[in-house]
From TrEMBL:
Coiled coil feature spans: none
InterPro entries the UniProt entry points to: Di-copper_centre_dom_sf, Hemocyanin/hexamerin, Hemocyanin/hexamerin_mid_dom, Hemocyanin_C, Hemocyanin_C_sf, Hemocyanin_N, Hemocyanin_N_sf, Ig_E-set
Keyword Kinase: no
Gene3D superfamilies recorded: Di-copper center containing domain from catechol oxidase, Hemocyanin, C-terminal domain, Hemocyanin, N-terminal domain
Protein name: Hemocyanin
UniProt entry keywords in alphabetical sequence: Signal
Signal peptide range: 1-15
Any GO molecular function: oxidoreductase activity
Stated family: Belongs to the tyrosinase family. Hemocyanin subfamily.
SUPFAM superfamilies reported in the protein's UniProt record: Di-copper centre-containing domain, E set domains, Hemocyanin, N-terminal domain
Residue ranges annotated for the Tyrosinase copper-binding domain, each copy included: 400-411
Amino acid sequence: MKVLVVLAFVATAAARPNLGFQADAADVSDAQKQHDINFLLHKIYGEIRDPNLKGKADSFDPEADLSHYSDSGEAVHKLIRDLKDHRLLEQNHWFSLLSPRQRHEALMLFDVLIRCKDWDTFVSNAAYFRQRMNEGEFVYALYVAVIHSPLAEHVVLPPLYEVAPHLFTNSEDIEAAYRAKQTQTPGKFQSSFTGTKKNPEQRVAYFGEDIGMNTHHVTWHMEFPFWWQDEYSHHLDRKGESFFWVHHHLAVRFDAERLSNYLDPVDELHWEKPIVQGFAPHTTYKYGGQFPSRPDNVNFEDVDGVARIRDLLIVESRIRDAIAHGYIIDKQGNRIDIMNERGIDILGDIIESSMYSPNVQYYGALHNTAHIVLGRQADPHGKYALPPGVLEHFETATRDPSFFRLHKYMDNIFKEHKDSLPPYSKEELTFTGVNVENLSVDGELETFFEDYEYSLINAVDDTEEIADVEISTYVPRLNHKDFAYNIEVTNNNGKEVLTTVRIFAWPHRDNNGIEYTFDEGRWNAIELDKFWVKLSPGSNHIVRKSSESAVTVPDVPSFDTLFKKAEAALGGGDAGLTEFESATGIPNRFLLPKGNEQGLEFDLVVAVTDGEADAAVEGLHDNTDFIHYGSHGKYPDNRPHGYPLDRKVPDDRVFEVLPNFKHIQVKVFNHGEHIHHH
Ligand SMILES: [Cu+2]
């Protein structure tokens, strides 16, 4: 028997598109670029601490040499004009991407950065505008530019929770951090989740308030911005479908966490019924006061200047009509068929809505508008001049349990479409000659909590004259013990074949102990992994480790680590940061739902399908760099997200008799273990 061990997954971002301009004249090293980005994002509320960058901020003239821009300086002229006219949002003010004017300003800066043809122009502009624009707008524009510009291909962005800790931790910690700074006493503070034991939702706050989960969510929205236009540089492949898939996953994973904690799955939000759960965010803006709270059982009200509830209902019914008809109507009045694999992508663009939506006029922007409407329910008529709610920022949205109600509601619209497509036939699902003989898991599936420490130094004001003291917080977070899947596959084709291995799991029972049907279960399936393997003729033994999962990413390195690694590599050599280049996936710690003391039962399934037919790009088996949800270049899998479980299964026997499919039951345990690191 041939033992086949799949190579460790390395989470590099896929190659960026070549935009046809020259490499940097000065040939700047990756370490130098990392150094520059570290300093540009450090202490954003004060002066730039790197003398070279500070010099650029003071003396660079963005309009001096327009040959450095791919658009001949068009973008930079626009931004400079608004700057000179004092039209830009002041510093020391909150920033929300969902505010049209603020977004417009942030995007003007992004537009400048993405048009820069060399690194020096890129960082000089970044330094210059950091000193003159709103800090939130600056951070947002720079993050998105680093993610999408080919110039910044190997740069690792610092964790957003260290750049802008206010959006990730609670007010109590922030106050403690200020006291520590004022008294020059180093401090480490234990963070706790919002709410008390009186609130059942508190039991799953570790999910919605997890800094890694929030980083995943906000990073996805930066990889696939709803405002993206291809003329910036490239097309975002399957953006609408990715929108569906990533939020579907947040919803099903949250439900699995709820079942682990003896809570019912989330109910969908309903515009004409009260918002059952209130929410007190215990979160504060750096500038602009507390995030607004909302009591329980509030009835929806129209939000002045944003939308009426009636408009949302109209848009919803137009979308449901399109699904029932099987086509949408584009801007020109043409019918576009959605009864196919591409349909979900179009619907995703419509529901979010993104600039890819074929008809915003008619189908509106359900998701984005809903976020604002829900976020403003504490002050719908603007009587109290409250700042935006947590739902109006991708960094903070999942903190509010109503986020999941909202997304369950939209997920059910997507389900209506998926369920209208014909089920896969046995013939379509069969991979001739390939049999999965056995599937098992090495090691117990066990989760635990641990403390994780991160720096709050960027939360507090400071000046170069006052020395820094160490200020950090440690938060409890979910993790799991390492395990591996053992998959025994026979290949009777008499030759090597390329296969895609897809691994999913779903809860076996609901909160009342009633078994889910196959069709209910598969819609709640969590994608655990997806990879390509070449099978030799005869028996193959595939061992795939949990740490290799293609849908997850490791912890983002701290600012401290990024500074040290960049400085060490400046003299030459590799900073060794490759595996951290993308933070878009789910944190690997969250691969498994929490489970419980008795062991929460899950159905674990593996589907081994034809890799040759599935692969959208060449050489997938040699290169296990899988870009999870990443946007650069072509998405490597031709199949829809969730394949082959994405369509209705009226008869589960179709799956159970498939030789290239295996289905077992496993249990996920949590024995109440909490590892303290301090
Ligand atoms: Cu989102």
